[in-house]
Automatic annotation (TrEMBL):
InterPro entries: Porin_dom_sf. It comes from the Bacteria. SUPFAM superfamilies: Porins (SSF56935). This is Phosphate-selective porin O and P. It comes from Desulfuromonas acetoxidans (strain DSM 684 / 11070).
Amino acid sequence: MRYRVNILRVWMGQVVLGMLLLFSSDVLCPDSAGAVNWLMLQGVEKKTAPIRFGGFLLLDYINAGGGDLPAGPFTGTALNSGVVTPNQRSSAEFNLRKLQLGIRGALTDKINYSLKTISGNNSATRIDDHNRIRLIESSVTLNHLPGARIRIGMFKTPAVEESLGFVPPCNYINLTNMTNMLMQERFFDADGSDPTDVNAPGVAGCCRDIGIMVFNTFNFKPWELTYAAMLANGHGLNLQDDNDNPDLYLYFAAERLRGVGKGTRRQGWKLFAWYQEGQRSLDVGISHTERVFRRCRYGMGTTLLWQNLRIESEIIKANGMIFAGTDGGAVPGTVSNNGLSVSGYNVLPEDQALGWYFDMGCEIFADFWLNARYDRLDLGTETNSEREFKTLSLGVLYRFSSTLRGKLTYEIRSGEAPHQNDSSVSNRILDDLPNRFSAQLLYLF
C-alpha cells in the first residue's frame, strides 16, 4: 500500500511539473504549446483527395542478450527474455519488422475512411511459424451529428498513450513492460496449467478491436477536450468474437493548446484517463474446464511537449486475465530436464497487476533527441508469486528527413520476486535478466 501511495504522489508531482513548465512558457516564449490528439488524428480526415496512399517500412536489429536458465526444471536451456520475438530462436537478429500499406481519404465532407494492412516478422503477422499479410485497420467515420462522430470497424482502441502513438512516431523501439504485458493482449485457449501443453496464443491484439466508437473534440481556447465511448468484440485483430459479451472502452482527455506544431509534433500539455472492461473465456486446470473471467484495465497519464522538452508518464491498474510469461522463464516448447513437461504460456485469470513509467526526452539540436524512460511492472500482486520488473531505457532518435528516421535503444533490465527469498528459483532467474540493445530504421512513404 505504501508503494502505491508513493507512486500516486510521484505521478501528481509530474503533473505539477508539467503545469509549471507550461504556464511559465507563456512568459518565456511568445509562441504557444499543445499535445497530440490521437483520436482525431487517426479517425478523422480533412476533406482532401478521396484516396491517399501511404505506409512505412521498418527494419531493425535486436540483441536480446541471450543467456541460459540458472535454476529450475529447465536449467541450462535458453532464457526466454534473452531471445528475439516473435521467432524466439536467436538472441540477436536482423528483421524486416513491419511493412505497412494503407489508403485513407474523405469520400464526402461527412464521411471518411481508413484501410491498412501489415506484413513482416512481428506478433501480428507471425502465425503457425509463418508470416502472413494481416488487416490491422478498416474503418469508416461518420461526421453527421453535432458533437458526436461515429467510427465503425477495426482500429486502435481509446486507451494508453503509448499504444496510440506506437510506430510511427514513437520514441523507442520496444514497448514498456506495462503496455506489453497488460495492454498488448494475447488470446489463449487455456491458463497454462497443463504441463504438456505449450498453450501458444493466437494473433496479438495490437491494442486494436472491432466495434463502434462515438467520439469528438471541443475547443475552449486554450483548452481542447476530447471524449470517446466504444463497444467492441474484445477479440483484437480476430474477425470473429469468442463470446456474446462486448467490451466497453471509455476515454477523456484535456489538452492545453498553444498553436505551435501540428499533427504528431503539436506542442502542449495533456491530461487523460481511460477505462476498459470485458469478459474472456478460458480453459482452466488440468481438466481444461471452460470458465468466463472479467478483464478490466484503467489508467491515467500526462504528456508535455514544449519546445525541445518532452515529458510523458502513465500508470495502469489491471484486474483479471494477467499474462504471466512462460513456465520457468524458458522458451515456449522447451522440454524440461526430466522430460515430463514443456514450457508453456501462462495466464493468471483472477490476479492483478500495476504498471507505470516516466519518460523524458530532449532535442539537443535540430531533429536529434536524447531519451530516457524508466518503467516498472508489478505482476501478480495478490499472491506470493508476485514479480517486479524494472527497465531503464536509454535512446537516441534522429530524423534524417521528413520520411527517414533512425533510433537506438539500450534497455537495462532487472527483476525480483519480493515475497520469496534471494536463493529461490524465481529470484535466481530474475537476477540473470539480460540487457537488450536495439537499432531501427524507419522509412515513411
